[in-house]
Write a sequence for this structure.
């Protein structure tokens, strides 16, 4: 295991190419974009969650934007902050620990409460690295995961919106498939990332809530209520209209219609335009991009990594 306290200055940190001239760095068997290695280390060394904190965790491109919108709306439904999603992208309202909070901009670092008495953050850092951080607090963690094939395709589309595409050319789907299956992928390996939080949710169900993108799509209203209960902001019987309102206002059609989410401007904290966070959001989109041989290859991995660990998901 790499010593987290020393890894920033360790020039022997393993690196692998994953697309064009872009590479990822390995920390304790997981791969990170080099830009976020120092800030990831800062999170692990410096972040001290408060008991009321809520952390939204995910592997990249598994429904993070939608989850941020829903949870922000649940927590802030009784305040003037509830309408902020109309003019602000969800990633600006719920900053990512290793990107904004401890990143180079540091624009959220000294903000104790952000938009409510509950601090709300997100992260793509795997549980295997965050275990000690979470164990130090009774903070609540919500983890969302998504079918591996849709995750791969969504990340492929997302990466091809990066500024670096102008210099390095497009990331071809064949290369994306190889990197995903080998685990050399930002945030990867995908299966290890998911299983870390899956196992933790079984060990500590009062603190870690796991939900799949597919079940959230299938019955958003039921799962919004479950999320609210877990987060300590339950809906009363007379608040059914509020639940319906949150589900409606956080729907893909509504969120993607706002000017801020259609914007081609780039945020200060990442190299993609705001509109790249809203593409389709449908289940099973992978069928339009992956051939039968590739689908079976990924399904075989899923059977081994998920089903073999009694997590019957992903196929």
């Amino acid at each position: 295991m790499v010593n987290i306290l020393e890894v920033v200055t360790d020039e022997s940190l393993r690196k692998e190419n994953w697309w064009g001239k872009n590479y990822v760095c390995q920390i304790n068997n997981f791969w990170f974009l080099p830009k976020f290695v120092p800030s990831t280390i800062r999170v692990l060394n410096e972040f001290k969650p408060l008991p009321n904190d809520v952390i939204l965790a995910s592997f990249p491109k598994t429904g993070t934007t939608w989850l941020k919108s829903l949870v922000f709306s649940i927590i802030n439904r009784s305040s003037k902050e509830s309408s902020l999603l109309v003019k602000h992208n969800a990633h600006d309202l719920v900053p990512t620990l290793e990107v904004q909070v401890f990143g180079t901009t540091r624009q959220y670092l000294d903000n104790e409460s952000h938009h409510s008495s509950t601090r709300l953050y997100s992260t793509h850092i795997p549980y295997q690295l965050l275990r000690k951080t979470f164990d130090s607090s009774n903070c609540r963690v919500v983890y969302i995961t998504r079918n591996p094939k849709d995750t791969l395709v969504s990340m492929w589309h997302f990466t091809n919106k990066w500024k670096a595409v102008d210099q390095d050319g497009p990331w071809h789907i064949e290369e994306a498939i190889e990197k995903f299956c080998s685990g050399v992928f930002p945030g990867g390996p995908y299966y290890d990332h998911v299983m870390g939080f899956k196992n933790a949710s079984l060990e500590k169900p009062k603190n870690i809530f796991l939900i799949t993108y597919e079940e959230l799509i299938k019955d958003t209203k039921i799962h919004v209520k479950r999320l609210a209960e877990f987060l300590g902001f339950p809906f009363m019987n007379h608040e059914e209209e509020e639940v319906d309102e949150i589900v409606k206002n956080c729907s893909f059609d509504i969120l993607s219609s706002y000017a801020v989410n259609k914007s081609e401007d780039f945020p200060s904290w990442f190299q993609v335009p705001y509109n790249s966070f809203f593409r389709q959001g449908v289940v099973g989109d992978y069928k339009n991009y992956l051939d039968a041989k590739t689908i079976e290859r990924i399904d075989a991995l899923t059977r081994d990594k998920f089903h073999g660990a009694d997590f019957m998901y992903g196929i």
Remarks:
- The chain is about 40% helix and 10% strand.
